[in-house]
C-alpha cells in the first residue's frame, strides 16, 4: 500500500483522537498490564501545540488514517494537552535536541512502515531547521521502532502520574543531514 504524509490541521482532530485511543488500547496491551494501559492515557496523547506549530503530520493509507506523529522545537518532552509539566519554551537547535512527539499508528496499519515514514519525515524537518540531535520518550511498544531507526536509550523512566507506574525510555539520536543551521557554519 502506498502511504501519503501531510501536515495535520485542527480539522483532523475528530479522526486523530480515535486513532490515538485505538493505538493506546491495542498496541500497548502486549507490553503493559491493564492498569498501566489505563495509566498511559494520563501521560500520552496529542499536544495540539504541534499542530499549531506545523510540526505534526498525518499518514494516509489510501483514504484511511493510518498514523500520526510529529516533532517539536519546544521543551516539552512528552504528553498531551491534558498532561502536566508542559513547557512551550523554544529550544536552541545549536544546543538542544528536537523532540519527537506523539507518534501513533492505527492498529490495522501496525508494522507496515507508517511509524518509520513519520519518524524519517520528522527527522528531516528538524534537521532542516538546524537541529543536529533528536530525543524522545518511548513506550515499551515503540522502543523497537526507535532502536531500529538508530535511537539509543539514555535513561529509563517510570511515570506514575496516571496511577499505575508506566515504564518509559528516554532515547536520543544524532540526525544525519543536519545542516549548519542559522548562525552556524
Supply the CATH class: Alpha Beta
Question: Mind telling me which CATH architecture this is?
Answer: 3-Layer(aba) Sandwich
Radius of gyration: 16 Å
- Unreliable segments of 5+ consecutive residues: 178-185
Beta-strand level of the residues, as a percent range? 25-35%
Q: Can you give the helix content as a percent range?
A: 25-40%
Overall mean pLDDT stands at: 93
Order of helices and strands: EHHHEEEHEHEE
Helical/strand content category: alpha+beta
Strand order of the largest sheet: 1-2-3-4-5-7-6
Report how far apart the termini are. 41 Å
Q: Report the biggest beta sheet as strand number plus sense, adding barrel if it closes.
A: 7 strands, mixed
List keywords for this structure.
disordered C terminus; 28% strand; alpha+beta; 185 residues; Aminopeptidase; 7 strands; seven-stranded mixed β-sheet
